[in-house]
Amino acid sequence: MVVDNPEFEPHFSHLAAGRLCFPYCMKCARFHWYPMPLCPHCQSADLAWREVAGRGTLYSWTEIHHAFDARYTGPLPYIVALIDFADAPGVRLVSNIVDVAAETLTINMPVGAHFGHAADGKPQVTFRPL
Amino acid sequence: MRSVRGSAINDTNIPMDIAIVGVGQTTPVRRSHKGIRQLAIEAVQLALDDAGMAASEVDAIITDGVIMPHTVPREFIAAQFGIERRFDGGNSFGGVGVACAPELAKLAINAGKARTVLFYFGVDWGSRASGPYGFHDMYPAKMAFEKPYGFNAQPSYFALWARRYMHEYGMTDADLAAVAISHRDNALLHPAAQARTPMTLESYRAARMIASPLRVPDCCLISDGVGAFIMTSVERARDLRQPPVRVLASSFASEPFSGDDIFTQQPEIFRVTGAHSACQRALREAGITIADVDFAELYDCFTISVLMQLEDLGFCARGESPAFVRERGIGIHGGLPVNTHGGLLSYSYLLGVEHVIEAVRQLRGAAGAAQVSKADIGLVGGWSIPDYGVLLLGKDQR
């Protein structure tokens, strides 16, 4: 079977084990996101995965009220966020903020990771305010 | 400059200026019962008729490099119109393909590779089930890491930017509304515009939320349609039916971000990559400054997009675009008329080919009720993230 993006897989196996990990360049010592064959900062192929503590801050967020694409319809509304990590500078992760009312969210508020699974069984990480 | 009139091709080493000599667009609609190929044939015929040219005079076709090759390939149009191509090209995608088509046409005409170049572009995203959202399926990291979290559509990307911009620069929903209302006011001056309901701050605030803080009127329309334009040397243009509209400059610029990364990973999130470079190069090539631009047709996929581009193109500084809209004004009679047809927000969503066509109307003095009083130089901004293209068009001052 052809795997188009084998560099994506470690993220999911780490999530399945309850770890949040991001690609890290051993040459320039910088994180990047998304996973890719070469470091986007220095073009090195000497890449590893580094675990972060799972505490982030809310860079931005939006509450989605519209089912855009029939292929991805879940209960509305839901919150999509962009999350920064102090221990992985340069990474911004797209995830959901769950179990919270949108009105209570503020930019830069601390959020914590929770490990689970998507409807299709794929490992997922979502966040709640800390 | 030595005259090249009558010459079939540019066989001199002297750069030739080029002009847009014919434009055509199908009537803006959400859904058309015609297929995209039929719409393309109609737009091309409209552009030929506008120029007063026969298809046999066209010897090159340019389209964007990503969307048209899958829906209305160049060889299909060539075969339908009996066009024998001596030059063929695709560049960038979507809006930048549009804004930079004259850059490629000018290179081809100056190299003696072509004499008359046809460009067309359109989408059938009003009819396609996944519309513009499915277009981003080509990005593997979006498929793996974003779409499973319901981050699966352009309004959600721009909503994150708008929210952060509000936090950093104190923008309010009234600032976004001012952009949406100005576009709608302009659209109401064009009989063909797709959105025809007047908008007020009250009706803006009553509109359905899509991806907070963006409401329906913050998001561009979705349309079926095609636009086309024809380019040739200014010398030849002067013998044709319409007043020539000169290509003063057309410049592409980009930065090393992939389509997967650009919406979320760029350190300076509000920077429109390529816009500053493309604009500076275009201004230099045209020998003008940003202050010489009389009106601008910008890639208004969302209200926040207009604000970001006003800043990166150099009309105002970072964080100042809401005040620019309030104080200088972007209406037909404002300090900088923007999207004089109503833009992607209110006229049609053909990713900017309608922007070139509207700029040509303005420079011909043929924009009717929406005519800008002084329209000598117009700027068209094409945005296909992370690429940007700036097209400067001007009246033929001979």
List descriptors:
heterodimer, A: 130 residues, mainly beta, 5-stranded antiparallel beta sheet, two-stranded antiparallel sheet, 1 helix, 38% strand, B: 398 residues, alpha/beta, 16 helices, 35% helix
Strand order of the largest sheet of chain B: 3-2-4-7-1-8-11-10-9
Mean pLDDT level of chain A = 94
- Give the number of DSSP strands of chain A: 7
C-alpha end-to-end distance of chain A: 42 Å
Please give a structural write-up.
The complex is a heterodimer of chains A (130) and B (398). With 130 residues, chain A is mainly beta. Chain A has 1 helix and 7 strands; from the N terminus they run αβββββββ. In chain A, the strands form 2 sheets. Chain A has a 5-stranded antiparallel sheet with strand order 5-4-3-6-7. A two-stranded antiparallel sheet of chain A has the order 1-2. In chain A, strand 4 (78-84) and strand 5 (92-97) form a beta hairpin. The termini of chain A are far apart. The model of chain A has no long low-confidence stretch (mean pLDDT 94). Chain B has 398 residues and is of the alpha/beta class. In chain B, the strands form 2 sheets. In chain B, strands 3-2-4-7-1-8-11-10-9 form a 9-stranded mixed sheet. In chain B, strands 5-6 form a two-stranded antiparallel sheet. The longest helix of chain B has 16 residues, at 36-51. The two termini of chain B are 13 Å apart. Classes of the chains: A mainly beta (130), B alpha/beta (398). At the A-B interface, strand 3, strand 4 and strand 5 of A face helix 6, helix 7, helix 8 and strand 5 of B.
